[in-house]
Design brief:
The structure is a single chain. The protein has 1 helix and 29 strands. Strands 20, 21, 23, 27, 28 and 29 form a 6-stranded mixed sheet that branches. A 5-stranded mixed sheet has the order 2-9-8-4-6, with no helix packed on it. A hairpin with a 4-residue loop joins strand 20 and strand 21. The longest helix is centred in the N-terminal third of the chain and has 26 residues. The protein is flat and about 65 Å long. The relative contact order is 0.11.
Length: about 400
């Protein structure tokens, strides 16, 4: 019995071994978790057949060559993004020209963005730069803060994908060589027919007594609307604590102030080194029986903003000149002046809305074909454009419609 069992087990083992060899010969090695394939170091087995791991792998396919080329792009580069004004006196003003260059291979577009609260950023002299072309952007700051360090910033928006925003900064130190209080001629809300008065005190903190050699409004179109006078006073009479000497500067404005926000400045020249020129803004808003409405019209500033205008296309804007009050039924206007003279202005017949309100449509057009220029009185350029309307309103006989725009090639 024992011999029979041994014979059966031996036959089964021989049969399994033979079956394994035949399977390897026909199909290659069989790998399982319990019987791994022989490694290359172990060499061939089961009769000398080469295991698959010893077969040289086929070379990897060569990746296709990318034939898509990157489109040319602009590149905005600033000569220096930070400028140090050094030491400034309170109430003084400084400006700096930042140079922006297009070092890329495609046209670069510039657009003025936001600024910190006390900075003024001009429009670029050229808003579209060809490759290799440069332009200037002027940042102006009036030191209306207390003594100490300052840093103000402004943003220029671009179509450069790597630099969509350029941050321009000015910094420095404000000192108390002189002081001014209040910081502006504040006239508030006034009627166009009113005459208003406002004053500022200017003092010195040095031993040299302050003397104002000149003080005048920067308004060149209607200088008679503003009278400026200087009154010597004792330092103790001024609100400037610690001042060694002081003067009071009085402003009388109106009647006939232009509608909208006032954008005038009073320029004050003194005998003090480091405070030779001080600027004080005139702050207020003028209202009356006549108002303007329409797309692009900024009521607070009293300015129609066209934005950037392609020279070949020109631009057109439509406003409503609104009359109210007892004289509205007989409202009438005529175009008295356009500056530049090539601006086209046309008033339509009056349209009565009620017994006390009348609208007169006004069309303003920038004709195509004009030379590149910047019309912007708040920054660099040649000043606002103007369309002057004569009216039959006794309180507002003249309306100065100011226009701001950039003509680009």
């Amino acid at each position: 019995m024992r011999n029979a069992i041994f014979t059966i087990l031996f036959s089964a083992a021989v049969g399994a071994a033979a079956g394994t060899w035949l399977a390897y010969r026909d199909t290659g090695p069989m790998t399982t978790a319990f019987y791994p394939s022989p490694t290359e170091a172990e060499g061939p087995s089961f009769g000398g057949a080469t295991p698959p791991s010893a077969v040289e792998p086929a070379p990897a396919a060569t990746p296709p060559i990318n034939t898509v080329t990157e489109a040319p792009t602009p590149h905005a580069e600033v000569d220096s993004s930070v400028h140090d004004f050094g030491t400034m006196i309170r109430g003084g003003t400084e400006s700096h020209d930042f140079v922006v260059t297009n070092t890329g291979a495609a046209p670069l577009s510039l657009e003025m963005g936001s600024t910190s609260c006390k900075c003024t950023l001009s429009d670029a002299a050229i808003s579209d730069l060809a490759p290799g072309e440069s332009t200037t952007v002027t940042l102006t700051w009036v030191a209306k803060v207390n003594a100490g360090p300052f840093r103000q910033t402004a943003n220029v928006l671009t179509n450069d994908p790597r630099h969509p925003r350029l941050v321009l900064s000015v910094e420095g130190q404000v000192t108390d060589v002189t002081g001014m209080k209040p910081r502006e001629f504040l006239v508030g809300k006034v009627n166009a027919a009113d005459t208003v008065e406002a004053s500022v005190y200017l003092g010195s903190y040095e031993d040299t007594p302050i003397a104002v050699t000149a003080a005048m409004s920067n308004n060149t179109r209607n200088p008679d609307l503003y009278q400026v006078s200087v009154v010597p006073i004792e330092a103790a009479e001024s609100p400037l604590e610690g001042a060694t000497s002081a003067v009071r500067i009085d402003l009388v404005a109106g009647p006939g102030l232009p509608l909208g926000g006032l954008t005038e400045w009073v320029e004050i020249e003194t005998n003090l080194e480091g405070a030779a020129k001080v600027l004080a803004p005139v702050v207020g808003a003028v209202e009356g029986d006549i108002s303007l409405h329409g797309r692009g019209w900024n009521r607070e500033l009293g300015v129609l903003n066209f934005g950037t205008i392609p020279s070949a296309e020109g631009a057109t804007a439509k406003l409503l000149v609104s009359f109210k009050g007892d004289t509205a039924a007989d409202a009438a206007i005529e175009i008295a002046e356009t500056d530049p003279a090539w601006i086209v202005a046309q008033a339509e017949p009056p349209r009565a809305v009620s017994e006390t309100k009348t609208h007169i449509p006004l069309t303003l057009r920038i004709p195509p074909g004009q030379a590149p220029a910047i019309h912007n009185e708040s920054g660099q350029g040649i000043g606002d454009a103007h369309v002057v309307l004569k009216t039959n309103n006794p309180e507002t006989p003249e309306v100065d419609v100011r226009l701001r725009f950039i003509i680009a090639q």
